[in-house]
Amino acid sequence: MTWVKIEGILHEYSNVENVKEEVSEILLNLKGIRIRTEVDTPGKLRIDGVGRGL
Predict the structure, then answer these.
(1) How far is CA 35 from CA 32, 45, 46, in A?
(2) Tell me: the pLDDT tens digits for 8-47?
(3) 10 domain residue, yes or no
């Protein structure tokens, strides 16, 4: 992972409305996700979430 964009967030010290974790903790959790691909080239991944627990 080289960058992350969270809608409405300007930097890692911002607060996300209705989210207990700080943005820095969310970023560390995202770095822990392991994804296997079928190709060897870099790409983009988009994660959309709505509702409780996201």
Answers:
(1) 10, 10, 12
(2) 888 888 888 888 888 999 899 988 988 888 998 988 888 8
(3) yes
